[in-house]
Design goal:
Homodimer. This is Histidinol-phosphate aminotransferase. By secondary structure, this protein is α/β, with parallel strands linked by helices. The chain has two domains: 17-37 and 260-351, Aspartate Aminotransferase, domain 1; 40-257, 3-Layer(aba) Sandwich (Aspartate Aminotransferase, domain 2), CATH 3.40.640. Helix content is 38%, strand content 14%. It contains eleven helices and 13 strands. The chain has helices spanning 7-11, 40-50, 63-73, 85-97, 113-120, 163-171, 226-239, 246-257, 259-282, 304-313, 337-351, and strands at 27-28, 80-83, 104-108, 125-129, 148-151, 178-181, 202-207, 220-224, 286-287, 294-298, 316-317, 319-320, 329-333. A five-stranded mixed beta sheet has the order 2-8-7-6-5, with helices on both faces. A four-stranded antiparallel beta sheet has the order 9-10-13-12, with helices on one face. Helix 6 links the parallel strand 5 (148-151) and strand 6. Helix 2 (40-50) packs antiparallel against helix 8 and helix 9 (259-282) runs parallel beside helix 11 (337-351). It is globular and about 55 Å long. The protein binds 4'-deoxy-4'-aminopyridoxal-5'-phosphate. 4'-deoxy-4'-aminopyridoxal-5'-phosphate (PMP) is lined by residues 85-87, 111, 151, 155, 181, 183, 207, 209, 215, 220.
Length: 352
């Protein structure tokens, strides 16, 4: 049969996200979702919106939600771009700021979507190795040819790069765009958003999927200088003027405005993270210092693959990435305290 695929479709090497098992009573610690439900105000806002006019298109400019996000960060509406999850915001950013023929830099190990986008959009890239302790070697990201992208905290290592170093990377790439993917920043010390007014080459990308417990609603956003945001809007309007539906807009707005609930659930996750880290260490695991809602851990006496498989048989899902390049590590999302107690008990039997 004739190959009817375009060269772009042939080039695509899709990223495969973690499993979403359609099964009850599993303990799901594999895709960094929030173990708590979204704020009750989110449910209220979505229910209200359902009663309104779903017959009509949503606002293509998304002013309301952009304004709420801007207010939360002390920015202007013009500094905010919204997309269908931060994966989509990342895709638009690759298209808007990176170019074929100009090499971009990102770390190795990092979020495995970056090489997927780079290949798809014909952008050459260099994977900069991490230091042996899994931290980022900042100077290796200076003077890039085509721009820089990295998550902070990094995924899946969970390690946070202090803001002064992030700033150094931005300062040493003034002619290029530096994208900081802050999917997990609400579990870390501080965001680079405070640098956005100072550096016109800095784009910060965040998501409602983790700390706001809205992975199912698909809302991500970018914060940056108005020129950068205009470029993203131009890309969006060339593909899909309405990436966010009315329900997602209403829910995300209620989530960003409910500070108290956000604080309460985030703090619970941080307390559980400290407890889980101690328990894993007591079982002999090496656990990297986490600034995220997951931990990245390795056991000196047992293969990561075996730990993953044995847990899976007991209906507990964690993330195992395969042998390369992460070798013997597994990634474990922080669930509720009760889930984590069950997890520690089971993993203790496996490695014990
Ligand atoms: N960036 C990083 C580093 C992530 O781990 C994820 C979640 N897999 C995302 C972006 C995308 O998140 P979402 O599309 O749900 O906003």
């Amino acid at each position: 049969m004739t190959n009817l695929w375009s060269s772009m479709a042939q080039r695509a090497e899709p990223y495969i996200p973690g499993e979403q098992l359609n099964k009850e009573n599993i303990i799901k610690l594999n895709t960094n979702e929030n173990p708590y439900p979204p704020s009750p105000k989110v449910i209220e806002a979505i229910s209200k919106e359902v009663g309104k006019d779903l017959r009509l298109y949503p606002s293509p400019t998304m002013e309301d939600l952009r304004c709420s996000i801007a207010r939360y960060y002390g920015l202007e509406t013009e500094n905010v771009f919204i997309g269908n999850g931060s994966d989509e915001v990342l895709a638009f950013s690759f298209m808007a700021f990176f170019e074929p023929g100009k090499q971009i830099l990102f770390p190795n190990i990092t979020y495995s979507f970056y090489p997927v986008y780079a290949k798809l959009f014909h952008i050459p890239y260099k994977e900069v190795p991490l230091n042996s302790d899994f931290t980022v070697n900042v100077e290796n990201f200076f003077h890039s040819d085509g721009g820089v992208i990295f998550p902070n905290p990094n995924a899946p290592t969970s390690i946070y790069l202090p803001l002064e170093y992030v700033e150094k990377i931005v300062q040493n790439n003034r002619e290029k765009v530096v994208i900081i993917d802050e999917a997990y920043i609400d579990f870390a010390p501080e965001s680079a958003v405070k640098l956005v007014n100072q550096y016109d080459n800095l784009l910060v990308i965040q998501t409602m999927s983790k700390s706001r417990a809205l992975a199912g609603l698909r809302v991500g956003f970018a914060l940056g200088n108005e020129q950068l945001i205009q470029a993203l809007i131009r890309m969006k309007d060339s593909f899909n003027s309405y990436p966010i539906d009315r329900l997602a807009m209403a829910g995300a707005k209620a989530a960003i405005e409910d500070q108290a609930y956000f604080k309460e659930t985030t703090e619970k996750i941080l307390t559980t993270r400290t407890w889980v880290t101690k328990q894993l260490e007591a079982l002999g695991f090496k656990v990297l210092p986490s600034s995220t809602n997951f931990v990245f851990a390795s056991h000196p006496e047992m293969a990561a693959e075996k730990i993953y498989e044995e847990l899976r048989e007991k209906d507990m899902l964690i993330r195992y990435f395969g042998k390369e390049p992460i070798d013997n590590f597994v990634r474990i999302t922080i669930g509720t305290r009760k889930e984590m107690e069950q997890f520690i008990e089971t993993v203790g039997e496996i490695v014990g």
